[in-house]
Design a protein that fits this description.
single chain; globular; 8-stranded antiparallel beta sheet; 48% strand; mainly beta; 3 helices; 53 strands
């Protein structure tokens, strides 16, 4: 049987991110594939599991996790993790050593190794214990199913499982025993072992904690099981988390933005060499500083970096303190790996203390810049926002926006966001129904080159005022979110959706553990059905947190609370947040780095993304026959930079995932736009084995 891949490509095409092609001879409804006692509801889900599948080997089993840049091997008694990134080069061995109550421990023998898709089990029947691993895009999930108590409990000791840690990494517990950090000999934070959850047969959540030995060579998982009904499930996860810093910065992380594999982080307070913004780029899972950006002839006191925005190869940086607080914004563009200033933006009618640049946002060739303290008419601090558009390499002011009900101290423009022809602008000082500083947000839309106000948004809060609705705003398509840091003194965020030209409140979001003065909603970001919300004063010492919410249908639910692995008082983690795909960046402007007080930092997190297998723009299932009756799938590669795409024609291996009538021997051909054959492959080991194995996909 023969399958053909038809490829249209630009002249700059060199190689191809990861696209998985699966071909089946069945037409009709989408398949349901099974893994253990779970079902995959789509072909994409099955291929996701396949991408992270475990392969049997002579010594046990092996797998790769490309999302976390880690290769792993399993034997009957331990896990070995190894970094794929050459610049890291660390190795970790992790194995269950003993189980019991407190210090009364029984050595655990090797188990029976079993594999099923992306799952590995080490079954130790004699100890009523199964250790398991699930390899997925968010990390390596590691868990235990304990069928019965390990012997007779004496005294007050908790159920304890002891893991031996060997290799290049040392374990250190944080988050009050709910997570630990594995650090290299150089002190780099390499891995996280976190998201500890324990429950019994009735679904009751049990109190659990992690501990380490004094040398960090042992990790203890302890569970209070007095009232538990066995079996118990113990479920932490290995993940990568990276902390970004700049040694010459001050208040680094005051603002953050991300676009794909590029992040920009603002440090607006004068550091060693004045205020700046820093570009970081990701290769695999490793972020490195690409360039430090500064304002030409900047005073170091101009607030350069107080707000940042990025899209593709264009960055916008606010400098609200420029020229006596008149303010400015700077556009930088990247060519290759070098960023250069394209233009300095100022308002056409700016004067001192306008604070133009207090907020910035970008979408394509349009930028919006807020000037929250602009005097409009006789209204002091009414505020305004300015739209600039780019033609070629030149930016020009398109329109100044002011609210229809503008008044003194509204501070319109304190926060801004833009997507396409829609902007949202926050104004925390708006009085609503006689409630001062209740706050509002305004939607403007563009028709041609003209912007007009579409709707004023206010919250459903019935407080007496001072909610500060509009402190932060973000937009994604027909959904916007606005933070209100002072609702009930804890803070809230409000999601609105658009139908036609009308916006309605969809849901008010609050933290599950919200407390007074958390400032929940001080920063927000939204992309699709995911929202991240900062609460930079959460915790007894203003350590700070951030919260991830996800939407299913019309309902938003909290998915996870994020905090720094090395959290400390007055870090203000959550000062800023940004989201791109499954990558989250959280700024901590007050983080002390060594002896540098308030140097600041930013933390990178990866969140699970549906469809991570890379099955892109393929939704049709057709019957694949022979001869000229082939399946043709096409895609277009755009841009000027080289891109790598791995094409996979999956046949017999799909049978293991419940796909019936899978192709027995698929052949993959790659054709150019003119139909000429680029290459053909009937067996990936023929001529590309080493290159493909390097990706960790085989």
């Amino acid at each position: 049987m023969k399958t053909t891949q038809f490829l249209k490509m630009p002249a700059t095409f060199v190689a191809l991110g990861v696209i998985a092609f699966a071909m089946s001879t069945v037409s009709g409804a989408a398949p349901t594939a099974t893994k253990g006692n779970r079902s995959y509801q789509s072909l994409s889900d099955a291929i996701t599991a396949m991408r992270y599948a475990v392969a049997e080997s002579e010594l046990g089993a092996t797998a790769a996790n490309t999302a976390n840049n880690v290769r792993m091997s399993f034997t009957s008694d331990e896990l070995q993790l190894k970094s794929i990134a050459q610049e890291k080069g660390w190795n970790l061995k992790w194995g269950l050593h003993s189980v019991g109550y407190g210090a009364n421990q029984t050595i655990v023998p090797a188990g029976e190794l079993r594999t099923n898709g992306n799952r590995v089990e080490l079954v130790r029947s004699g100890q009523n214990l199964t250790e398991w691993f699930v390899n997925n895009p968010s990390g390596l999930e590691h868990g235990f199913t304990v069928a019965a108590p390990p012997g007779t409990k004496t005294g007050r000791g908790a159920l304890r499982l002891v893991m031996k840690v060997k290799g290049d990494l040392t374990a250190r517990v944080d988050q009050d025993g709910q997570a630990l950090t594995l650090t290299s000999e150089r002190g780099e934070h390499v891995l996280r072992y976190e998201k500890l959850k324990v429950w019994d047969a009735n679904g009751q959540t049990l109190v659990a904690r992690m501990r380490t030995s004094g040398s960090g060579g042992e990790v203890w998982l302890e569970v209070e099981d007095e009232a538990a009904v066995y079996p118990l499930t113990i479920d932490p996860t290995f993940t990568l988390q990276q902390k970004l810093t700049a040694s010459d910065a001050f208040a680094f992380g005051n603002s953050v933005a991300i676009s794909g594999d590029t992040a920009v982080i603002g440090a607006p307070t004068a550091g060693v060499d004045g205020s700046a913004a820093y570009i970081f780029v990701r290769s695999g899972t490793t972020w490195t500083q690409q360039q430090r950006l500064t304002a030409p002839a900047g005073s170091g006191l101009d607030g350069f970096g107080n707000r940042v925005a990025i899209e593709g190869d264009t960055v916008t940086i606010g400098a609200a303190g420029d020229t006596g607080n008149r303010g400015a914004a700077y556009i930088f563009v990247r060519s290759g790996t070098t960023w250069t200033q394209q233009q300095k933006l100022t308002s056409s009618d700016g004067v001192g203390n306008d604070r133009f640049g207090a907020s910035v946002a970008i979408s394509g060739d349009s930028v919006i810049v807020g000037a929250a303290f602009d005097v409009v008419g006789s209204n002091t601090n009414q505020g305004s926002a300015y739209i600039f558009t780019r033609s070629g390499t030149t930016w020009t002011e398109q329109q100044k926006l002011i609210s229809s009900d503008g008044a003194t101290n509204h501070q319109f423009g304190g926060s801004v966001a833009i997507e396409g022809d829609t902007v949202i602008i926050g104004a925390i000082g708006v009085t609503v129904s006689s409630r001062a500083f209740q706050g509002a947000a305004y939607i403007f839309t563009r028709s041609g080159t003209t912007w007009s106000e579409q709707q004023r948004l206010t919250s459903s809060s019935n407080s007496s005022g001072n909610d500060l609705f509009g402190t932060s705003v973000s937009i994604s398509s027909d959904t916007v979110i606005a933070g209100a840091t002072e609702v009930n003194r804890t803070g809230s965020a409000y999601v609105f959706v658009r139908t036609g030209t009308t916006w309605t409140e969809q849901q008010r979001l609050t933290a599950s553990d919200g407390a007074s003065s958390d400032r929940f909603g001080g920063s927000v970001a939204i992309e699709g059905d995911t929202v991240i919300i900062g609460a930079d004063q959460n915790g007894t010492g203003d350590e700070g947190s951030a919260y991830i919410f996800a939407r299913s249908g019309t309902t938003w639910t909290q998915q996870q609370k994020l905090s720094a692995f090395d959290t400390a008082q007055q870090d203000f983690f959550g000062t800023s947040v940004a989201l791109s795909g499954n990558t989250v960046i959280v700024g901590a402007r007050g983080d002390d780095i060594g002896s540098n007080v308030d140097q600041g930092s930013a933390y990178v997190f990866l969140t699970p993304t549906p469809g991570d297998a890379g099955l892109l723009n393929i939704s049709t299932r057709l019957q694949v026959l022979t001869g000229d009756q082939v399946l043709i799938g096409g895609f277009i590669v755009t841009g000027t930079d080289p891109k790598m795409v791995i094409l996979r024609a999956i046949g017999p291996a799909l049978i293991d995932f419940g796909i019936s009538d899978a192709l027995a021997d698929p052949v993959l051909e790659l054709h150019a736009a003119d139909g000429s054959l680029i290459m053909s492959n009937d067996n990936w080991k023929m001529d590309q084995q080493s290159e493909i194995e390097m990706t960790g996909l085989a």
